[in-house]
Amino acid sequence: MIRIVIAEDQAMVLGALASLLALEPDIAVVGRAPDGVKALDMVRSLGPHVLLSDIEMPGLTGIEVAAQLAQQRSATRVLIVTTFGRAGYLRRAIDAGVSGYLLKDSPADRLADAIRRVAAGGRVIDPELAATAAFAPSDPLSDRERAILRLAHDGRSNKEIGRSLALSPGTVRNYLSEAAAKLGASNRIEAGRIARDSGWL
């Protein structure tokens, strides 16, 4: 039996995925996490074979969860299922150590097959997206720049960002300026848009 945890912040999608996979005779959903932090806790406590995760979630993104699990040498393998069909997301996911990356519009039988292949030690990547990613530019942002730019893109002020990351507003401003320069953007709003469209946030 393949034991999986599903991480998805949209309750309806989470329920649908769990119900769908419960129909498979060799797959058992042992946990449901509404955000990245709870997903990480569940993987640590339940030790599933596979974590099926969205990318954009509160607390930690699916990619950040995968990176932490890789650093901890967790035996749980990560399969990303997302609406984000951008090459930048895929490259970041692979760099973080995920074993699979599928789009949410994939057929149900393909998802179940991907879980089996990932659990068996294989890798499953959406083929069209993989071809696109091979020629996509590399992500120029550092992890700190990405975190700050993500908060700025969500409308936070420099002071609010600094408070949440234990940085001074001036340091936040410097990071934002550096990120904008790397992206060829004239301001933080444009930098956030470019990074989001490229799959780098």
Automatic annotation (TrEMBL):
Q: Which UniProt keywords apply?
A: DNA-binding, Phosphoprotein
Kindly indicate whether the keyword DNA-binding belongs to this entry. yes
The entry's protein name is Response regulator transcription factor
Q: Is the keyword DNA-binding assigned to this protein? A: yes
Quote the CDD domains the UniProt record gives: LuxR_C_like
Domain of life, per UniProt, equals: Bacteria
| Residues modified to 4-aspartylphosphate | D54
- Give the Response regulatory domain ranges: 3-119
Q: Which Gene3D superfamilies match?
A: 3.40.50.2300
Which Pfam families does its entry note?
A: GerE, Response_reg
- Per the database record, which ranges form the HTH luxR-type domain? 134-199
